[in-house]
Amino acid sequence: MNASSDSGDSGSLVAGLRCRLCGTLYPARPINFCPEDFGPLEVDYHHDAVARTFNRAAIASRPRTMWRYRELLPLDGPPTVGTQVGCTPLVRADRLAKVLGVSELYIKNDAVNHPTLSFKDRVVAVALSKAVEFGFKTVGCASTGNLAGSVAANAAAAGLEAYVLIPDNLEAGKILGATVYGAKVIAVSGNYDQVNRLCSQIAFKYGWGLVNVNLRPFYAEGSKTMGFEIAEDLGWCAPDHVVAPMAGGSLIGKIYKAFKELEKHGLIGPVSTRMYGAQASGCNPIAALVKSGGKRIKPVRHPNTIAKSLAIGDPADGDFAASLIHATGGWSEDVSDEEIVAGMRLLAQTEGIFAETAGGVTVAAARRLIQDGKIDRDGSTVLCITGNGLKTQEALIDHVARPQVIPPNLAAFEELVGLAPVDSAGLVAAS
Ligand SMILES: *Cc1c(COP(=O)(O)O)cnc(C)c1O
């Protein structure tokens, strides 16, 4: 315990930022690492004060947005950015379950999140609301695609100036989906890790609020709402298995943290959920660490996969994600580009959900984990679908049939689909 906590002020439920390595508690400020040992910082709460209002009935009485869990989100006042985000559908996926060979399967569908069709709207809502509380006028991010669009859109709606830095090889839909909002989008000739390093330099030199750099501890808390919503929509119950895609490795840990916080406050029973992480084989540092049983991430220097949103070679939360996966009794798989495309098509054709490449990663990894007996077929399983397929059309363009062109008459239609022509009396013509 550390004396530097600012617990008393302003009635905030946030106790401060705690170092994940040494446990020291710091006041809530725009910093992302411990000055002592450079460990990452995580938001801690005054749980006694949280307990006074955080209960099932209070939550159920609030609007269906991610802010219904506001006691465990790190703001001092009401949210000002992204007030409509979250509460996406949890879909019972029986047709996909049949193909995968499991009895109880759900899709958490953040492909339809508001406003930019990915789970990133959750983290950005928290980070930019916090940026406003801190008084930042200029914000930004290092992005693999979805964060770019979400920061750009939410900053536009909040009247904040936004700088968005991306690797120069992203999909057209991701780039257009950021520039349209008027953000300054800068493509860097390098991979995500190089973009991220540049953003750290910018944040500290110019004093801007970069959502996944100096605002990262607050940003990351937004991911918990995916876990809160899953448990509430399952009737206040954590599932047996969760499969989540991993980029920096933050989301998977925060979903689990959400279940543990609900357990701590008595909103759900004891948690025994196993966490499963999904990556692409072309950038699999966390999956490789889980499989090797080692302690430290070996960075992937040259990511090469169609799942560009997950292509982080040196993931900030990779070590923690791998140890969490082991601690819960879960596992991790990585899948090829062909499997990713097959996963996207399978989800679309069984459940009518068009996910981006990261969704293909999740479905394909789940398929392998079930086949290998890592996920048991009788438990409940939730697949986290985190982005929308309309933004990564390049991945499918050579894999789906083009429509056939016909002249505008019935005979041509019937010839194409192989139907026998029918005469005007409704009788099939003799041929
Ligand atoms: C950012 C992102 C993730 C996961 O991010 P983490 O860095 O692991 O928290 C998953 N799916 C999509 C589509 C993303 O954009």
Please give the structural blueprint.
Blueprint: E1 14-19, E2 25-26, E3 41-45, H1 47-51, H2 56-60, E4 90-92, H3 94-100, E5 104-109, H4 120-134, E6 138-142, H5 146-158, E7 161-167, H6 172-179, E8 184-188, H7 192-206, E9 209-210, H8 216-221, H9 224-233, E10 241-245, H10 250-264, E11 274-280, H11 285-292, H12 318-327, E12 332-335, H13 337-351, H14 357-371, E13 380-385, H15 410-417
Parallel strand pairs: 5-13, 6-7, 6-9, 7-8, 10-11, 10-13, 11-12
Antiparallel strand pairs: 1-2, 1-3, 4-5
Bound molecules: pyridoxal-5'-phosphate (PLP).
Looking at this protein, list some descriptive labels.
single chain, 431 residues, alpha/beta, Rossmann fold, 3 domains, six-stranded mixed β-sheet, four-stranded parallel β-sheet, 15 helices, disordered N terminus, binds pyridoxal-5'-phosphate
Give a written overview of the molecule:
Residues 84-387 form the Tryptophan synthase beta chain-like PALP domain. InterPro entries: Ser/Thr_Dehydratase, Thr_synthase-like, TrpB-like_PALP, TrpB-like_PALP_sf. GO terms for molecular function: L-serine ammonia-lyase activity; threonine deaminase activity; threonine synthase activity. Keywords: Lyase, Pyridoxal phosphate. Its cofactor is pyridoxal 5'-phosphate. This protein is α/β, with parallel strands linked by helices and 431 residues long. It folds into 3 domains: 14-72, no CATH class; 90-116 and 222-395, 3-Layer(aba) Sandwich (Rossmann fold), CATH 3.40.50.1100; 120-216, 3-Layer(aba) Sandwich (Rossmann fold). Helix content is 36%, strand content 15%. The protein is built from 15 helices and 13 strands. It has helices at residues 47-51, 56-60, 94-100, 120-134, 146-158, 172-179, 192-206, 216-221, 224-233, 250-264, 285-292, 318-327, 337-351, 357-371, 410-417, and strands at 14-19, 25-26, 41-45, 90-92, 104-109, 138-142, 161-167, 184-188, 209-210, 241-245, 274-280, 332-335, 380-385. Helix 5 (146-158) links the parallel strand 6 and strand 7. The termini are far apart. The structure holds pyridoxal-5'-phosphate. Pyridoxal-5'-phosphate (PLP) binds at residues 118-120, 146, 245-251, 309, 356, 358, 386-387.
